[in-house]
Amino acid sequence: MKNLFTAFTILxxxxxxxxxxxxxxxxxxxxxxxxxxxxNNLVYYTLPKSAKEKTISQYxxxxxxxxxxxxxxxISEKIQLDGKSDYRKVVVLxxxxxxxxxxxxxITSFYGxxxxxxPLSFSDNGEKRLKQNAALKGSPFIVIxxxxxxxxxxxxxxx
Length: 159
Fold this sequence. Notes:
2 helices
């Protein structure tokens, strides 16, 4: 009986000691989580009554508020685009880094390079063209699907 009581006490206090944070997302949603770390543009966390590790894109999270004290940590600033000229603010992500962002379509473009243009230069200009199209549509994130001549394609994401 004493061992059973000790086990319950340990389990109960462990849940109270856990680092509980409130995650505020850029889309206005909030969640209670146990924050683990940020790495490779991802935020790693667990839910309060679960041990399963989950991830969300760092760009989807505005800030983390620690519940035990009033500490607040800004994870990312919200990207505001005002048109095609803001293409430099568009972020190119990998597919696994878009968890928590909303897919809002596919953009395509055409870029016929000039004669003698290097493959690296073509790739950079193709990426620039895709970023401009995403900025024009107000989408701050893209995942490039194809960056080949005559076939520029990307998936666009928003908050």
